[in-house]
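To the wet lab folks,

You asked to see what we're planning to order before we commit. Fair enough. Below is the target structure as tokens, and below that is the sequence we designed to fit it. If anything looks off to you, flag it before the synthesis order goes out.
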């Protein structure tokens, strides 16, 4: 009944797709809490904030508070006003009560979450689109989009480092906007044989890539490596290629078998996928397979944009056939800027993952949570991160053009 009511309310309100997602990841890391309690703790506030923000109806806060109580308490507890569960939904429980609680997402959370996700065309797991693209707001709409004027809508554990991680990534997406616009201008210029317009578009693309690299550098100012490694990363780990959850997660009422989904990852951003397609960069089969799988975690319109860029006339062929040395030089500058970005990304990942993992191994006793130890040196999408990043960087470098090509 609750599930039916939730879906009917969603249909009446016609939630905008980009605001309707539900986040539910806190349960993964809290072994002494009811899984239902932990899931509800994050599903309900997130959904309430997004729904009330979109609709302007604060009654949604009450609605999702009721859903929180429903998901948190057992059937008897919901009808017992004196139940300790009503006062203390985060009470301790035996670690192995009712089996391993990390293996099953309960029906009353799984069904609505999967239904919402299907309507959005996204997998039922926290993705880049949830954590970053739709999870920011301005403190003063009349001021510029800089980190001091931004805030996140829904938070997870990680404090100011979590806030910084999300907002710096938002600013990276913002820095990519001129580059994305340049792709459209460049494709039109190729179709219309306007090399001067194509040259300007390539110059704009290069500047955008360089701005992305500078913006990524703000991560050092706002994100503590230890907090990222031991806290934030866990909520982005997912349950595919994750040694901490090798069999995946059963969505009760949806599938009798565990399902596997990758965690949130920068590889789920449209930006570098679109740049690679436009510049004609070919990755190794293993890397390409992973990157194409990440496209399934993008909003459908974003994935469609990448496919449009892929189907456009070849930029490399146009430059080589044109004999225009200025175009070739500017194309190579774009590729070099992308190589520099990917090299810098390796530096950032080394600081926030590899170096911290090495330090963690040397600690006696190791105080990091269990899943972090299982996930050492893995990216949030499930890759062995350094080998993947070096591969895509090296393949990017191989795209440099020579007139004899």
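Sequence we intend to order:
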């Amino acid at each position: 009944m609750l599930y039916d009511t939730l879906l009917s309310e969603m249909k009446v309100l016609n939630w905008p797709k980009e605001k309707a997602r539900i986040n539910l990841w806190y349960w993964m890391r809290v072994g002494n809490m009811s899984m239902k309690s932990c899931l509800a703790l994050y599903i309900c506030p997130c959904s309430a904030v997004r729904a009330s923000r979109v609709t302007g109806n604060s009654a949604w806060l009450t609605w999702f508070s009721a859903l929180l109580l429903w998901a948190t308490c057992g059937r008897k507890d919901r009808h017992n006003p004196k139940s300790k569960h009503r006062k203390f939904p985060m009470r301790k429980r035996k670690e192995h009560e009712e089996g391993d609680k990390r293996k099953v997402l309960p029906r009353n959370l799984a069904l609505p979450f999967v239904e919402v996700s299907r309507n959005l065309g996204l997998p039922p797991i926290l993705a880049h689109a949830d954590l970053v693209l739709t999870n920011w707001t301005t403190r003063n709409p009349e001021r510029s989009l800089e980190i001091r004027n931004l805030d996140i809508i829904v938070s997870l554990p990680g404090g100011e480092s979590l806030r910084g991680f999300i907002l710096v990534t938002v600013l990276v997406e913002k820095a990519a906007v001129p580059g994305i616009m340049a792709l459209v201008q460049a494709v039109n210029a190729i179709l219309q044989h306007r090399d001067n317009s194509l040259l300007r578009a390539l110059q704009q693309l290069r500047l955008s890539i360089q701005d992305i690299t500078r913006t990524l550098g703000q991560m050092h100012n706002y994100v503590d490596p230890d907090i990222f490694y031991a806290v934030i990363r866990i909520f982005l780990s997912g349950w595919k290629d994750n040694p901490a959850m090798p069999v995946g997660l059963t969505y009760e009422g949806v599938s009798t078998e565990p399902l596997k989904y990758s965690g949130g990852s920068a590889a789920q951003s449209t930006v570098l996928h679109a740049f690679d397609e436009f510049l004609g960069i070919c990755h190794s089969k293993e890397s390409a397979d992973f990157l194409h799988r990440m496209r399934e975690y993008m909003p459908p319109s974003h994935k469609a944009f990448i496919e449009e860029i892929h189907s456009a006339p070849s930029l490399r062929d146009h430059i080589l056939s044109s004999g225009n040395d200025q175009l070739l030089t500017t194309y190579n500058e774009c590729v070099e800027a992308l190589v520099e970005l990917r090299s810098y990304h390796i530096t950032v990942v080394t600081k926030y993952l590899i170096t911290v993992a090495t330090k963690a191994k040397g600690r006696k006793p190791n105080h990091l949570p269990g899943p972090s130890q299982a996930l050492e040196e893995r990216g949030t999408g499930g890759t062995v991160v350094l080998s993947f990043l070096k591969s895509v960087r090296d393949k990017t470098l191989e795209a440099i053009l020579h007139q004899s090509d």
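Structural context that might help your review: Residues 1-99, 379-383 have pLDDT under 50 and may be disordered. The longest helix spans residues 325-362.

Thanks,
Computational group
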